[in-house]
Amino acid sequence: MRMVKALAQAFLRLLWILTLAKCKIPDAHLTCLFSEDCVLPCSFQPGGNEIISWYRQEVLLLNHSHQGGDQSDQPPKDHRTRMYLLQDQLSRGNASLHLSQCGIKDRGRYRCQVNSTLGQQESFIIMKVEAPIKMVTMEISKNREIQCLSKDIFPAPRVQWSTLPPKANLRSTTHMAPNTEGLYSVQSKLRMFGNTPTYVCTVNSTYGSQSWKSSLQKGELTGEAGRELSIPCMAPQNFQNFFLTWTFAKTNDKSKVILSYVSQTRRTSNLWEGQVELEQDRVLMGDGSLLLHNPESQEHTGTYTCTFSGFQSRHMVQTQVAIRSTLRRSLTENMPNAEDQVGRTGESHSKMWVIAVVVAVVALVTTALLLYRKQRANQGKADRTTLEDTEMQPMETIKTSDDLPMDNCQLTAGHNNGHT
Ligand SMILES: *[C@@H]1O[C@H](CO)[C@@H](O)[C@H](O)[C@H]1NC(C)=O
Ligand SMILES: *[C@@H]1O[C@H](CO)[C@@H](O)[C@H](O)[C@H]1NC(C)=O
Ligand SMILES: *[C@@H]1O[C@H](CO)[C@@H](O)[C@H](O)[C@H]1NC(C)=O
Ligand SMILES: *[C@@H]1O[C@H](CO)[C@@H](O)[C@H](O)[C@H]1NC(C)=O
């Protein structure tokens, strides 16, 4: 038992020594923002006649000898390398390194070394550079693909898609490429599919400091000219301190802002004054629906986009609005009547057939009768010409009174009979 206890104690002491040895030079961590100034801290015990050296990845960046007191022969500033120390801080034991306009290449392990009459003191700092996400936008390309875009980010972020209602196995393609400064541009595409109104793109920074969300909802709406129309737009739940904008675009046209609203000041800027309006009491609760007062078919047909912008989030509602003119409406309403008329003309066509047949039959009968009568008359004429040539007048009278052929026939017959 005593042996075990002694061993355990020895082990613990060893562990403690090891921890101490490790803790002797603890690396400090620092994240600097891209293109901004950064201060790398370094404190030392002032002992006089210090020589201060800063290294990055063991490459000397800066050497400065400090004689004590505030005056120095040369200013510890190097414009060429964008690095400097503050003179007045050195006498207080502060040799912090100033770095102006941090770049991606400035990342690394820094060493601050101070040699003085007290000996050598050093400390290490691991410096990271981050270019935060400033905006995530979404757009729909022509071939029914939805794009999530962001740029000037470092390190390369993580992109994730989701939908509302949720759908599994979303297949997206993401392209990320650094520019000459080392900052990443992100372009992620997802093919749109039916019956999913909301697409959500999440872009997270590698260091976990940011999570941006951008969503897009699509819709369609048909209104009538002259009749008030409300184009719906609801903010996601618990969306606070937002900026709301409404834009309008006709097909193949650039979109222009028509209205904007700031929730904190409750101020609306309306560029379509008199034509559109927000409902003031509802907009504060996240209902940014737009009221179109007196829409006109030509002027107000197009794409209306409502955008809620808040802290690291953006929600867009894109509505395709068609305003039907009352003229067009009556035309479409008359369509069934027009079909009716087509039906009726069909009916009258068949009626006309009947009439045509009747007319043809009557004409045929009449012609037949006429021919018959003419033949008979000719026979009589032939008889008469042989008898008396002057008897043409009664024939003419018979001809004109065609409406009573039977009587004429009888007459002719009688006449003929009278002659014969
Ligand atoms: C920095 O100081 C050391 C020691 O005095 C010297 O050896 C070295 O040359 C100096 N480097 C520069 C760049 O001044
Ligand atoms: C050291 O000086 C820098 C400015 O050069 C300052 O920002 C920092 O707070 C100082 N550190 C201490 C411990 O005083
Ligand atoms: C500081 O002291 C260390 C160890 O004594 C030495 O290796 C180094 O060259 C010195 N640096 C300067 C700049 O004098
Ligand atoms: C992004 O961050 C959010 C919030 O921290 C988290 O819920 C989500 O899972 C993260 N997504 C990815 C892809 O890292």
From TrEMBL:
Cell membrane among keywords: yes
Q: How does it sit in the membrane?
A: Single-pass type I membrane protein
What are the boundaries of the region Disordered?
A: 380-420
Q: Where in the cell is it found?
A: Cell membrane
Give the stretches traversing the membrane.
352-372
What Gene3D superfamilies has UniProt attached to this entry? Answer: Immunoglobulins
Q: Does the keyword Oxidoreductase apply?
A: no
Domain named Ig-like is located at: 30-125, 197-322
Family matches, as InterPro entries: CD80_C2-set, Ig-like_dom, Ig-like_dom_sf, Ig-like_fold, Ig_sub, Ig_V-set, T-cell_Activation_Regulation
One GO location term (cellular component): external side of plasma membrane
Q: Which domain of life is it from?
A: Eukaryota
Annotated keywords: Cell membrane, Disulfide bond, Glycoprotein, Immunoglobulin domain, Membrane, Receptor, Signal, Transmembrane, Transmembrane helix
Q: What is this protein called?
A: Ig-like domain-containing protein
Read off the lineage from the record: Eukaryota, Metazoa, Chordata, Craniata, Vertebrata
Gene coding for it: LOC106603080
